[in-house]
């Protein structure tokens, strides 16, 4: 007859699974400390306070985007007073009127026209060159009948004298 199979004795527990009280308490305490250091709510809250706390973010926004700071920057660059001063310097009606007075004022144009095209100046020039008095004087000097008659009388009288003597 075949003997019945032997009942196997209970398997010995593995080294890691042995019920050692000291090893279990040590591993638990070390893992608990590590989790406290890395995943504890206190540590995560502190890190979030340093980087993402509302107070720190509000301070940064106050420096860059606060209404007071933005208002000051806008006053420096885009305030109506500054823009009005620049417009007064370049596009003010007074400045444009002064420039127009210097270049296109009726007084200046009238003076220039008086100097070049005024009837008085043209009349003076015409008097100097084409006035009847000047032409008469020139004709008197060169073509007057009195001088020509006097010259002919002188020349003819001298001819009569020479012919009479001869």
Can you walk me through this structure?
It is built from ten helices and no strands. By secondary structure, it is mainly α. It has a domain at 77-101. The longest helix has 21 residues, at 145-165. Residues 63-83 have a biased composition (Low complexity). Residues 141-156 have a biased composition (Polar residues).
Briefly characterize the structure.
This protein is an all-alpha fold and 166 residues long. The protein has ten helices and no strands.
Series of secondary-structure elements, N-terminal to C-terminal: HHHHHHHHHH
Helix count from the secondary structure assignment: 10
Oligomeric state of the chains in view: single chain
List low-pLDDT spans.
none
Kindly estimate the percentage of residues that lie in beta strands according to DSSP.
under 5%
The radius of gyration computed from the alpha-carbon positions, rounded to a whole number of angstroms, is 63 Å
Major sheet characteristics:
none
How much helicity do the residues have? over 70%
Terminal Cα separation, in Å? Answer: 216 Å
Mean pLDDT: 56
Number of strands: 0
- Overall geometry comes to rod-shaped
Strand-pairing-aware structural class: mainly alpha
